[in-house]
Amino acid sequence: MVVARLIRRVHVVVGLAAGALVLLFAVSGLMLNHRWALWEFWSERVERVQQVRVEVPRVGSELERARSVLSQMKVQGEVTYLVHDSDSDTLEIRTTRPGRLATVRVHNASGEGRLTIVDLNGWSLLPGLHVLSGLHSNLAEKKNWIGTAVWSAMMDATVLALVLLVGTGLYLWAAAPADRRVGMLALAFGTGSAAAVLWVLCQ
Fold this sequence. Notes:
This protein is α+β, with helices and mostly antiparallel strands. The chain is built from 5 helices and 5 strands.
């Protein structure tokens, strides 16, 4: 009985603690799966372009140089694209963060260039968070923004919470004889449906 009470408490506490994040990923997953007009955000974007002049460092790694340029313009976010064009001697940097995209292209020698900022409305925040893993870039340094690193850790915590909820849920079901028949039907339906869809997709 002590074990059952402990597992039930873990199930309840983990469910309550992770509830907001699980709901966030559920809603954002729905938004990514269905492009309904209700949450259209790309067509509502606001784009701003401005001329800039910065000091491009000559030393340091490519990412360190890019971060220096971005900090001078007070631009934050995950660096997802970084290229030095030797022919034109320009540095192009693209960053992303929920609700905002930024692209800067500057001449290494003069430091002159152009900054383009795309602001998205509130509907973009959920799908933006859903895919903010820091892995979609041409850089070796993944998760190069503190916001991405922190959010990535929260994503891992959500996965762990879901695993705990499933595990403790299975134990609580097995410990309740009155629910075993209904639980078995639900387990068989869910597992069978997933297996059938995966089998069809993999053919």
